[in-house]
Amino acid sequence: YRIQDVGKPKAEVAAKRVMERVSGVNIVPHFCRIEDKELEFYNQFQIIVLGLDSIEARSYINSVACGFLEYDSDDRPVQETVKPMVDGGTEGFKGHARVIIPGMTPCFECNIWLFPPQVKFPLCTLAETPRTAAHCIEYAHLIKWDEVHSGKPFDADDTEHMQWIYSEALKR
């Protein structure tokens, strides 16, 4: 992500960057809720690459990919049904990447304990794709407060300040 990419969907930016760097590759970005796609959409791929912001979204795709998995009579994964996943993400300057091969490596759910509890939310999530009440509250607190009350410090002990945050979060 670069300065000129702010406000653009990550899927579109990532697809463009990869196509610029890897000759012959064609990537069609999809900017929507992953749950809105039919299962057959995911089944058409040989590999699934994730760049998701939430544990819930990763868990959903994990269950989709693992749901395609079939076993033969010797209890071995049928290769044609294995949908490897490449999961990657960043928070600030920290990042991770892992390959998950259903039926062969631990799945996402098996490793979920590796994630530290989330205490901060990415600003792109707050500004563009809020999914929880906490996202809306943080948006009102971190973004809207300064827009409306420039320079005035927020006081969590002031009931008027808290009521304003509550009202703005409800709008969001």
UniProtKB/TrEMBL annotation:
An MF annotation (GO) of this entry: ATP binding
Origin: domain of life: Eukaryota
Annotated catalysed reactions: ATP + [NEDD8 protein] + [E1 NEDD8-activating enzyme]-L-cysteine = AMP + diphosphate + [E1 NEDD8-activating enzyme]-S-[NEDD8 protein]-yl-L-cysteine
Active site residues of this protein: 124
Boundaries of every THIF-type NAD/FAD binding fold domain copy: 1-136
GO cellular component: cytoplasm; nucleus
Pathway where it operates: Protein modification; protein neddylation
An example Gene Ontology biological process: protein neddylation
EC class name: ligase
UniProtKB keywords: ATP-binding, Ligase, Nucleotide-binding, Ubl conjugation pathway
EC number: 6.2.1.64
PANTHER family attached to this UniProt entry: NEDD8-ACTIVATING ENZYME E1 CATALYTIC SUBUNIT, UBIQUITIN-ACTIVATING ENZYME E1
Summary of the function given for this chain in its UniProt record: Catalytic subunit of the dimeric E1 enzyme, which activates NEDD8.
Family: Belongs to the ubiquitin-activating E1 family. UBA3 subfamily.
Name of the protein described by the UniProt record: NEDD8-activating enzyme E1 catalytic subunit
Protein species of origin: Aegilops tauschii subsp. strangulata (Goatgrass)
Species lineage: Eukaryota, Viridiplantae, Streptophyta, Embryophyta, Tracheophyta
